[in-house]
Amino acid sequence: MKYLVTVILLAMCTNVFADDAMREVKTSNPFVALHPAAQQEATAEYYEAVENNVFNGAIPLKYAQLAALSASVAMRCEYCIPAHTAFAKAAGATDEEIKTAVAIAADVSLNSSMLYGNQFDMDTFLKMFE
């Protein structure tokens, strides 16, 4: 965990990682130990697959991290927000891009709350996109 925090802090303070360079950064995943022992091998494989196929997949790393930040804000995850902010900045995201990712999460939350709270008819909603 200390190594992961060091990598995050280094990325935040120096912003030296470019997209390809950051993809090469490997850390021991402390999240594996949070799972029951019987599931840890499968959990480690899952996290490796996510790293290889999602964060190193079809979407450039900076944008994948901005999407993860936006999802983290929507989930209100106090752990994920600073991590994905640091990772996005390390991948080259600007402060304005960070603010925009947060604004997107806020907009989705606002509209979701308005639709859900007003019990907007789902069939009517879906017809809006035909």
Provide structural commentary.
By secondary structure, this protein is mainly alpha-helical. It has one domain: AhpD-like (Up-down Bundle). The protein is built from seven helices and no strands. It has helices at 2-14, 19-23, 40-53, 61-75, 80-90, 95-117, 122-127. The radius of gyration is 18 Å and the shape is globular. Mean pLDDT is 84; it is low at 1-19.
CATH class: Mainly Alpha
Question: What portion of residues belong to β-strands?
Answer: under 5%
Sum up the overall morphology in one term: globular
| Number of β-strand runs | 0
CATH superfamily: AhpD-like
In angstroms, what separates the terminal alpha carbons?
48 Å
Major beta-sheet overview: none
Structural class: mainly alpha
- Tally of domains: 1
Helix fraction by DSSP (H/I, runs of at least 4):
55-70%
- What is the H/E order? HHHHHHH
CATH architecture: Up-down Bundle
Number of helices: 7
Average pLDDT taken over every residue: 84
Looking at CATH, which topology would you report?
Answer: AhpD-like
The unreliable regions are 1-19
Quaternary assembly: single chain
Radius of gyration: 18 Å
List keywords for this structure.
130 residues; mainly alpha; AhpD-like; 67% helix; disordered N terminus
SSE layout and pairing:
Blueprint (H helix, E strand, L loop, with lengths): L1 H13 L4 H5 L16 H14 L7 H15 L4 H11 L4 H23 L4 H6 L3
Helix pairs in contact: 1-5, 4-5, 4-6
In short:
With 130 residues, this protein is mainly alpha-helical.
